[in-house]
Amino acid sequence: MLEIRWHSRAGQGAVTGAKGLADVVSTTGKHVQAFAFYGSAKRGAAMTAYNRVDDKAILNHEKYMRPDYVLVIDPALVYVADITANEKDNTIYIVTTHMSTEELVASQPKLQGKKVYTVDCIKIAQETIGKAIPNTPMLGALMKVSGMYDIEFFKESMIKVLKKLPQKIIDANMIAIQRAYDEVK
Amino acid sequence: MADTMELRDIEVWDGNMAASQALRQVQVDVVAAYPITPSTPIVENYANFTANGYVDGEFVMTESEHGAMSCCIGAAAAGGRVATATSSQGFALMVETLYSASGMRLPIVLNVVNRALGAPLNVNGDHSDMYLGRDSGWIQIDCYNPQNAYDMNMIAFKVAEDHDVRLPAMVHQDGFMTSHTAQGVKTLTDEQVYNFVGEFKPMNDMLDLDHPVTHGVQTEEDWHFEHKARQQHALMTVVLPKIQTAFDEFEKLTGRKYNLVETYNMEDAEIAVVCMGTSVETAEEVSNELRAQGIKAGVVGIRVFRPWPLEQIAETLKGVKAIAALDRSSPHGTVGTLYNELAGSLFNTGTNAVLTNYIYGLGGRDLTKAHLVGIYNDLKANMDAGKPTTPLQQYIGLRGPKLSFF
């Protein structure tokens, strides 16, 4: 079982990102689950979304999770949300930030000694999609760090997931995914 | 003529989308709705299908849930296939009209996305609204995941509309835990679904002007009792066999097997938990882990909550030594509903099983695998002692001092 927790602000697309990832993974014959904690959802409020992936049917519906990957798509949540909650020894963190990995870890001691990767999904999204929607670039970074799928296969699959959007937006998302894949460190 | 929609063999849908797609595929004549979290996307998606030409029927926006169900009752009495969706406070506002729908023998399908009842206000999932509906005369079918939400809608229409049944049916799914959780759903084509449920055949419909009928009559002392007895007779004698037949046909079509009472690891189980909704599947996973340690742990899931499958439950739990009834609703002044139902089912059967009750998950509070392991540990102690080693009713997952009664 592979388990992923997203830290996001409501409106940044973590739910869409989690569902998009589930959609792609499902086409490869694996079983998937994507869900989120909403609370009284207000745009901008800190929230979490989750993915489970397994080779067999997923029966577990508990919200409690010890994630293999933690994806943080809003830079400030590193300081205000409990991003290391229920972590494992080998939990991998991918964080959206303008800082280098060293600067980030120095600014948040909780991440010291952890496997941390950084990529500026906000900037990438602004420069490609034209809006600070960092969800699809984060998936590009996840593909690089996890080696889950070949990036070309992943992009082709994401085109199908995004098919209802205008072609221009789909193209911009593909550039954003590739850039995050190339730039994550 | 409505457009058909091409679906992939497996779609990643949440429970709400699964229910919406089933409503589209059975081609409902009238959906009258007033949206409420977490069931809103069911009617929102359906309105989208209607606007985009995938539905021939009418979509009616009403002023309240009471109005929505009243509109459904009118449309069903007129002679149409009718459905809607609601949750929580909206369900509570519908209650008066629910009794009218069942008393008038109108086969409406209501998707209930289970949610807590306020106060305090809470949008998350528990079974308070499902339990509120249990004496309303409706068939109540429960789902554990999005696939169930898709499949059980088809079963609900097929059974409710059967001329031997003619009773309304609720399809329940857990708010957020199913309704907003995306999982793989194996789909059927539009044609397969429509053929499985069949064309709607009205009975005593008001728009059949050659055969005038009266709906919504007043009976008083002379006939009221006889009407209620006929309704109970249909619920008690006809519905469960019809659901079983529908399950059998559904298995032939899809390979997916459903049962009135779902069992998991129960063949030689010594201890068992009985529950509903997503908890059933989480408990299944825990029972697998306990089996690996040599503990004979099983799970019983209630698939049909009304009519209550009393004899099937008694048969299923025959030979089990310690049983936990898990209720996701505050019983407010007594033991939990499932505890009562199980006690009623097992009494007079000669069982020596120890039966205890757990209240859990109110307002969406997580039911963790660790909680379930704790419950099974209690059950094992009860089995070994041959009597309860804990209070009869315990609250689990509650912060602060432990709470228990009896």
User: First CA to last CA of chain A: what distance?
Assistant: 25 Å
Count of individual beta strands of chain B:
16
- By CATH, the topology of the largest domain in chain B is Rossmann fold
Integer average pLDDT of chain A: 95
CATH class of the largest domain in chain B: Alpha Beta
CATH-wise, what's the superfamily of the largest domain in chain B?
Thiamin diphosphate (ThDP)-binding fold, Pyr/PP domains
Query: What is the topology, as strand order, of the major beta sheet of chain B?
Result: 3-2-4-5-7-6-12
Strand content of chain B: 15-25%
Structure report:
Chain A has one domain (2-183): Pyruvate-ferredoxin oxidoreductase, PFOR, domain III (Pyruvate-ferredoxin Oxidoreductase, domain 3), CATH 3.40.920. Helix content of chain A is 39%, strand content 21%. Chain A contains 7 helices and 6 strands; from the N terminus they run βαβββαβαβαααα. Chain B has 406 residues and is an alpha/beta fold. Chain B has helices at 15-26, 40-51, 65-78, 88-103, 128-132, 146-160, 190-197, 220-237, 239-254, 278-292, 310-317, 337-346, 369-385, and strands at 10-13, 30-33, 58-61, 82-86, 109-114, 139-142, 169-174, 182-186, 261-264, 271-275, 297-302, 304-306, 322-327, 354-359, 393-395, 404-405. In chain B, the strands form 3 sheets. Chain B has a 7-stranded mixed β-sheet with strand order 3-2-4-5-7-6-12, with helices on both faces. Chain B has a 7-stranded mixed β-sheet with strand order 9-11-10-13-14-15-16, sandwiched between helices. In chain B, helix 1 packs across helix 2 (40-51), helix 3 (65-78) packs parallel to helix 4 and helix 6 crosses helix 9 (239-254). The model of chain B has no long low-confidence stretch (mean pLDDT 97). The A-B interface holds A 18-19, 22-23, 26, 31-36, 38, 40, 58-64 and B 10, 12, 123, 145, 174, 176-177, 180-184, 278-279, 281-282, 284-285, 366-370.
